[in-house]
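catalase
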Amino acid sequence: MDSYKHRPSSAFNSPFWTANSGAPIWNNNSSLTVGPRGPILLEDYHLVEKLANFDRERIPERVVHARGASAKGFFEVTHDISQLTCADFLRAPGVQTPVIVRFSTVIHERGSPETLRDPRGFAVKFYTREGNFDLVGNNFPVFFIRDGMKFPDMVHALKPNPKSHIQENWRILDFFSHHPESLHMFTFLFDDLGVPQDYRHMEGSGVNTYTLINKAGKAHYVKFHWKPTCGVKCLLEEEAIKVGGSNHSHATQDLYDSIAAGNYPEWKLFIQTIDPDHEQRFDFDPLDVTKTWPEDILPLQPVGRLVLIRTLTTSLLKMNSLHFALLLWFLEFTIQMTSYSRLVSSPTLIPRGTG
Ligand code: HEM
């Protein structure tokens, strides 16, 4: 046999079905049996693998942030912050890094309307030369709670009542009335900002305080902020009812349509920094996730721009398997209870099938 002729012309153009391992499958139609009517042999590896793959081909949806849309693009450094960080992807103006971004709502399920009053997720995965860095943020700069111990209870209060499957205000207010620290985030949620017009017109924030470390080992506390170049736009209650009534995927559609039309969504990245040696100078705790850092005393410093240029060509299933983690060596979480809880929560998600 001429082995050259029988070699597949490319890894993606094999004339055979292949097993997960890449081994060729000669028969994809009949099980391996002892006789014409069975029994089936356990050594029929392909049958076992095919059924196992099929049985698991649905990835359970995220417990929060299930409803979302993703797009790819790049991040480009526009301002030199190398005095603050040794991160390779922030090393100099002009450096570009590929990214994937996932926007989401938080509480309701995968098929829920995108017009609900709910915080929005703004998660950016930077594919840096030093490994992936996931900057997992929200559209509001503060969080409801400080201690991640309360996160499951908070989410359960916000989720529909398990008995009726209806979201009930009394359950939400019952929980949050015991947590006055949540009031700041509520002022965003129930303000005109509570329903973003779409994903393109909303801000993003890292929320947690991170630490940037420079080449000399000096640390700075940092907050990350994304500002859309097309401005912030939101829907009023009546507008949201109208938009949601005619298209429950309007924000996903807007993202896809604007990229397809070459109207690439863009955000500028800004940081605010505090030297940890000076943290006592403020009348608020810079590590308190329910507080913002006043921009008049801690001005926004430009860093770069994020441009989305490609929608995802992979299936919805693949999109749902996009997983955001929270670790990278040069950007550390500071000692905040919410951030530690997120760190602990992150690897526990791998069994969900995302990995
Ligand atoms: C307080 C502790 C927290 C816990 C225990 C927690 C837990 C989780 C969990 C379980 C998921 C689902 C992930 C998946 O199944 O793939 C998730 C997603 C997410 N979380 Fe948190 N979270 C916390 C705090 C935060 C904070 C403070 C923010 C905002 C900065 C945030 C933003 C997000 C976003 C944007 C996603 C969706 C990421 C995506 O699009 O896949 N979380 N979180």
